[in-house]
From TrEMBL:
It is a multi-pass membrane protein. Belongs to the 3-beta-HSD family. Keywords: Endoplasmic reticulum, Lipid metabolism, Membrane, NAD, Oxidoreductase, Steroidogenesis, Transmembrane, Transmembrane helix. GO terms for cellular component: endoplasmic reticulum membrane. This is 3 beta-hydroxysteroid dehydrogenase type 7.
Length: 339
C-alpha cells in the first residue's frame, strides 16, 4: 500500500521476525525496499532498523487468543516490544510513530456488555482478563503517553494509535480454517452464534490505507492528531461473525445450517471450558489450542460494532476499497488459498 500510494516514499524498511518471500517481488520497483529480519523484543535490533527513518508504523504483534503462547511471551512482544519501538524513535530522532492497536483495548468486555455502533468517545467499561487485550491496551497507553516526548535533536515525538475491528481479507487464516472445516463437514457449517449479535469487521486493504494516510498526515496535522486514537472502519456490513463469514464462504459453496444456534449457549460454554481444561492438562505433552475457548466464545457472542467518522474528520479518510471490492477480493483469495 505504501509503495502504491505514497509518491514521496524513498525507502521502505520491513522489520519482522519472519520475512515473507513476496517481499522479494517488491524490490524490483524504483523505491528501495529493505527487509530486516529481527525481533521487536531486542531493543538494539529495533533501534538499528529505525535509525534514520522519517516515520515508523509499528504493527508487529503477537495475536493470540487461543492460548498458543504464554502470557509472558505475549507481554514481551506486545508491550516490551512497543516500548522498544518508542525508545528507538526517541534515541534515533524519528518523530512520527503510528501504532496498530485493536478494538480489543476497548472490548468486548468480560461482562458481555454490547458496544453497539460506538465511536472513540462512547463510554464503555473496558475490563480485560485475557493477556492479548491486556497487552494491547498497555501498549496503546505507552504509545499515547509518548506523544510529545523530545526525540534526539529536541523535537517532539508525534504518536497515534489505530484500532482495527476484526480484520478480514487476503491472508485471513481463520477464514480459511472455517472454509476447510466446512468442506470436511459436507460443505456445511453449523450456526453457533445468534444472528442478532453484531460484530465489527474491516477489510485489510482499508486498514492498510488508513495507516498510510496517518503516516502521511501526522506531520502536517500533528497538533490535531498527536496522541489520538482512531477506530479502523469501512463500509463492511454489520453482521454476526458467522453471517459475515458466509458473505465469502457462501460463494465458495458452503452453507450455514440453522437460523438459530444449534447448541444452547450453556452447552457451548461447557465445551469451551472443557477445551480450556484439556489445553491445561495436555500442555506438558502437546499444544492443544482450538478456536473455541471461553474467551473466544464470549467475544463472538457479544455485539461490538463501530460507527464513527473521526478518521474522516481528522485526516480525510475514505475507504479505498468498496464493500463489493473487499468482498470479491476476499472470495477470490479463499477460493485460491486451498488449491
Ligand atoms: N487480525 C485482526 O483481526 C486484528 C485486529 C485488530 C488489530 N490487529 C493488530 O494488527 C497487527 C497485525 O496483526 P495480524 O492479524 O496481521 O497478525 P499477524 O500475526 O499476521 O502479523 C503480525 C506480524 O508480527 C510479526 N511478529 C510477531 N512477533 C514478532 C517479534 N517478536 N518481532 C518482530 N516481528 C514479530 C509476525 O511475524 C507477523 O508478521 C497486530 O498488532 C494486531 O494486534 C489485528
Ligand atoms: C464459537 C465459534 C463458532 O463458529 C466462533 C469462534 C470465532 C472466534 C474464533 C472469533 C470471533 C471473534 C474473533 C476476534 C475478533 O474478530 C477481533 C479480534 C481482535 C484482534 O485484535 C485479534 C483477533 C480477534 C481477537 C479475533 C480472533 C478470533 C475471534 C475470537
Amino acid at each position: 500500500m505504501l509503495l502504491e500510494q505514497e509518491p514521496r516514499l524513498r525507502e521502505l524498511r520491513v522489520f519482522d521476525l519472519h520475512l515473507s518471500s513476496w517481499l522479494e517481488e517488491l524490490k524490483t520497483g524504483p523505491v528501495q525496499v529493505t527487509p530486516i529480519q529481527g525481533d521487536v523484543t531486542q531493543a538494539h535490533q529495533v533501534a538499528a532498523a529505525v535509525s534514520g527513518a522519517h516515520v515508523v508504523i509499528h504493527t508487529a504483534g503477537l495475536v493470540d487468543v487461543f492460548g498458543r503462547a504464554s502470557p509472558e511471551t505475549i507481554y514481551k512482544v506486545n508491550v516490551q516490544g512497543t516500548q522498544n519501538v518508542i525508545e528507538a524513535c526517541v534515541q534515533t530522532g524519528t518523530r512520527f510513530l503510528v501504532y496498530t492497536s485493536s478494538m480489543e483495548v476497548v472490548g468486548p468486555n468480560v461482562k458481555g456488555q454490547p458496544f453497539y455502533r460506538g465511536n472513540e468517545d462512547t463510554p464503555y467499561e473496558a475490563l480485560h482478563k485475557h493477556p492479548y487485550p491486556q497487552s494491547k491496551a498497555q501498549a496503546e497507553r505507552l504509545v499515547l503517553q509518548a506523544n510529545g516526548r523530545k526525540v534526539q535533536g529536541g523535537l517532539p515525538l508525534v504518536t497515534c494509535a489505530l484500532r482495527p475491528t476484526g480484520i478480514y481479507g487476503e491472508g485471513h487464516q481463520i477464514m480459511r480454517d472455517f472454509y476447510l472445516q466446512g468442506l470436511r463437514l459436507g460443505s456445511r457449517l453449523f450456526r453457533a452464534i445468534p444472528a442478532s449479535v453484531e460484530h465489527g469487521r474491516v477489510y485489510v486493504g482499508n486498514v492498510a490505507w488508513m495507516h498510510v494516510l496517518v503516516a502521511r498526515e501526522l506531520e502536517p496535522r500533528a497538533e490535531l492528531m498527536g496522541g489520538q486514537v482512531y477506530f479502523c472502519y469501512d463500509k463492511s456490513p454489520y453482521k454476526s461473525y458467522e453471517d459475515f463469514n458466509m458473505e465469502f464462504l457462501g460463494p465458495c459453496g458452503l452453507r450455514l445450517v440453522g437460523t438459530r444456534p444449534l447448541l444452547p449457549y450453556w452447552l457451548l460454554m461447557l465445551l469451551a471450558t472443557l477445551n480450556a481444561l484439556l489445553q491445561w492438562l495436555l500442555r506438558p505433552l502437546l499444544l492443544y489450542a482450538p478456536l473455541l475457548n471461553p474467551y473466544t466464545l464470549a467475544i463472538a457472542n457479544t455485539t461490538f460494532t463501530v460507527s464513527t467518522n473521526k478518521a474522516q474528520r481528522h485526516f480525510g479518510y475514505e475507504p479505498l476499497f468498496s464493500w463489493e471490492d473487499s468482498r470479491t477480493r476476499t472470495i477470490l483469495w479463499v477460493q485460491g488459498s486451498t488449491q
